Give the backbone structure.
Amino acid sequence: MVRRGFTLVEAIVGSVVLALAMVSILGLTGQSLASQRRGEQLRTAAMLADEQLNLVLAVGAEDFPRVFDRKGTCPEPFETYRYQVSIKSQGEGYPFLVTATVIWDSGGREQTLDIETFIAPRLGDDPDPDRLPPTTVSRDQA
C-alpha cells in the first residue's frame, strides 16, 4: 500500500512540474510574439521615415514645404501611421537639420520614431533632369 501512495505523490508532483513548465513556455511565446510585432512596426516606421527623408533629398530642403505636406497620414496600406517632417536651417552655407517623425498606435499607446539627418542645400539653378528613357522599352521582345 505504501508503494501505491508513493506513486500517486510522484504523479501529482510530476503534473505540477509539467504545468509550471507549460506556463513558462506559454509566457515566453507571448513575449516573443509581442517582440516580433514591435519589430515589424519599427521596420515599417523606419521605411516610412526613410521615404520622407528621400523626398526632402529629391526636391531639396528649401523646396520641400512648397511641394509636399510637412505632416499627414501615410498612404495605404500604412494609413495607421502618421508622419511629420521638420526642416531647420543652420545658416547660410550649412546643411539643413531634417527630422522625420513617424507616429503610430500600438496597444493603445502612441509610439514614435524620430530620424535626424543633415541635408546640404541644393546649389545652382539647374532644373531637375527629365529621367524618362528616350524610347519606350518593350518587354514583349525576346
Notes: The first strand starts at residue 71 and ends at 73. The mean pLDDT is 86. The chain has one domain: 2-119.
